[in-house]
Amino acid sequence: MRKIILLFIAAHLASICMAQVKVRYLLTENKIDPISIDVLNPRFSWQLNAGDKRNVMQTAYELRVSSIGKGKHEVWKTGKIMSDESMYITYKGEPLAAGQKYMWQVRIWDNTGKASAWSEPATWQMGMLTAADWKAKWITPGFKEDSVNRPSPLFRKGFSLTKKVKSATAYITSHGLYEAQINGHRVGDAYLTPGWTTYNKRLQYQAYDVTNLLQPGANAVGTTLGSGWYRGHIGFSNQQNYYGKDIALLFQLEVTYTDGTTATIISDESWKSSTGPVRFAEIYNGATIDDRMQQKNWSTASFDDKSWSGVTVKDYTKSTLVATVNEPVKKHETFKPVKIFKTPKGEEVIDFGQNLVGWVQIKVRGNAGDTIRLSHAEILDKPGNFYTENLRAARAQDIYILKGGGEEVFEPQFTWQGFRYIKVEGYKKDLNAADFTAISLYSDMKPAGTFSCSNEMINKLQHNIQWGQKGNFLDVPTDCPQRDERLGWTGDAQVFSRTATYNMNVHNFFTKWLKDVAADQYPSGSVPFVIPDVLGNNKNEAGGSTGWADVSTIIPWNMYVAYGDKQILENQYASMKAWVKYMQDKSKNDLWNTGNHFGDWLFYSVNDDTDGSSAITSKYLIAQCFYANSTQLMINTAKVLGKKDDEAYYTDLLAKIKKAFFNEYLTPNGLISSDTQTAYVLALQFDMLPENLRQQAAQRLANNIARYGNHLTTGFLGTPYLCNVLSRFGHEDVAYKLLLQDTYPSWLYPVKMGATTIWERWDGIRPDGTLETPTMNSYNHYAYGAIGDWMYRVIAGIDTKEAGPGYKQIVIKPTIGGNLNNVVADYETNYGKVSSHWKLDAGNLLLDVEIPANTTATVYIPGSSSSAVLESGKAINAVPGITAGDATDGYVAVNVGSGVYHFSIAKP
């Protein structure tokens, strides 16, 4: 009996333990166990794992933080804090030391009063906090450079470690790009480091845990440098040396021995320099790798570097150095050839089946001096030949020269290409698919959302949207990845930013880039066309275009809404204000009708406009709308940050802006002077019209779409809001017609034409197979992929309340239509997974919803009566924890807590 009782008690305790809420996914400054934080008061976040329990909320938490290593002690303990906050809890303990490692844990109390166990420990390491923390010296090659081809310099240093190593961190940055090795092994798995920032104001360094690469006794470190964005060809007009002519390295290795003593190895005058196999490397033009120039084992301790040159120490600044905020560029998916063929011209071409960004790795055997050329293209022309004219001046060609004597494996360095096809020249045997692998490169952002439905064309569109983002989110949000551009165009980034949050976690990605938006903003408040700004300077401003410069207000707000991080707004507030002030300064009587603007870029246009069918929208009308929108965002931001005086100021300004719009652009009957889709979309999206004229304007928009045969005519600025506006004003059916349209111009037309990414132009390939003008015709250009926002937020219905940003207060409001039978959408928020899965089954609607712990949600279920709604087969009013209101506007609003729910409503 005693044994039975003990077993019963053990089982009972186990069940309690199983039911207990657990704390997981601990983040420090939005990262898992980062090793280089230069924020003096980092922030902590975590998630709750409640299993299958419903309505779980955190009511309190406790944090404890300790230093690790010599002198280990507790540096902060909060005690029990009564709060449901689990995101961005700011450290308020002892001052943190550069290079020091810390550990933290958290436990929480749930809304039943139960305390969780302490979480598994998370760690972080502080980086360099001041310029004085850098003992390393900037070094440049000691040999005379080839100023034309600029072969990549090699740097090396041998050193000895006298004791057993406990831990070691390498801090590295460069003027140009770098790759490092220790004892013949690559340091880290990041590429194109240190990334692209406004180098003269902000230069990122990376930190690496290299403990396992070191050995007792003799060691060696080696680095290879490339010109990259710093001094390579970038921007237009074959411009180079934008940030400087030099190429330089800064390296510092901090070693801690098991006995607690330390050693520091730095870049200084004792290093050696030479060149190696990378004979040429430019972002636009590709790389030349000559294997005959390999210096075997050059980064190992046994290598003899007597013939190498010395280095030159330079007094370059360290005051601009900052820790890396965003995820580095890494290798991701790989692709094997889906087809190998000869074109009508006799070109040997490989098709990888996907337009991607990265490079091709090849395996080859041959004789010394044999040369292989790989050229890259996105498409074939109408006859089926290899097409590179749209790359403009970009050569986009990798050249490999064999050393002979066995199989050699090549891939380029310090460059990348956008391509689906490669042309192979110089290969002395039949092309073998096993010898070629395409490797995708993009910033290592965590996947966030998935969307699929019963329409395969829409699924392909979603695929294309995601691959457009992958290919162009390569450290900065580039407009295109293939031609002689690849710049951080601000307009493209802002229109796509909310969609971007659904596909991937872009919190850190945009946090970093927005710092450069502020850094490169002109003293006038104007924002450059591209960030980092390589098209203008303070004397020659290349910026101020409406819808582009509004990146300074739109993306910070979108990131706040998506992630609930007020610090983004605090960081960018001065920049946001400066942009609105610029528009004020350019306005007269609150009307902004000056300056040069891109307008509704690449809107629908016919070649011969004698019939007036091109959808031309006044650029100044657009400017006034975006002026109002940015001012509204200032009101929103001031309210969030508690800046009441600013909130009142911008509220007054907004009323004047809207009045000026009304007087200038509206007829007494509510007709907008530019009778275009974009004019109505922007006026409605930004609430430029009095409420009594809005439904009328929405009907005019719907009528306009019908006049064009249910086609859109919008460009970069109108397209992102088009379907959202239609849905908001009761024209969901028209929005679905636009989404499902598959003839030009439409989202599905490129899909029908075989696109695997989003095109720059609606008709990059015309219906007859001919191609749009090659001077501006990218086949990987994500801006029009902004429809993805509507697919997640309206079709699937996943959204967040602005009053509870970051999905603390969730909205699930699916929109049934478009002949879709089912939709499956999942999204990883800061709190955990949100799901909205709906399907029609014999006319009945089934809606499966998942809400993460420590959040609440309002689920809007299509229907006319709450009495018809069931949850897991029960009337919702009989289910504990669920409250339902009356049906309004065709939906029953149901308030729920966390958990998994299965709603159903019978066909009326």
From TrEMBL:
Residues 448-795 form the Alpha-L-rhamnosidase six-hairpin glycosidase domain. Keywords: Hydrolase. Its EC number is 3.2.1.40. SUPFAM superfamilies: Six-hairpin glycosidases. Residues 342-441 form the Alpha-L-rhamnosidase concanavalin-like domain. One of its GO terms (biological process) is carbohydrate metabolic process. Gene3D superfamilies: 1.50.10.10, Galactose-binding domain-like, Immunoglobulins, Maltose phosphorylase, domain 3. It is an enzyme of class 3 (hydrolase). InterPro entries: 6-hairpin_glycosidase_sf, 6hp_glycosidase-like_sf, Alpha_rhamnosid, Bac_rhamnosid6H, Bac_rhamnosid_C, Bac_rhamnosid_N, Ig-like_fold, Rhamnosid_concanavalin. Residues 163-333 form the Bacterial alpha-L-rhamnosidase N-terminal domain. Residues 798-871 form the Alpha-L-rhamnosidase C-terminal domain. It catalyses: Hydrolysis of terminal non-reducing alpha-L-rhamnose residues in alpha-L-rhamnosides. This is alpha-L-rhamnosidase. It comes from Mucilaginibacter xinganensis.
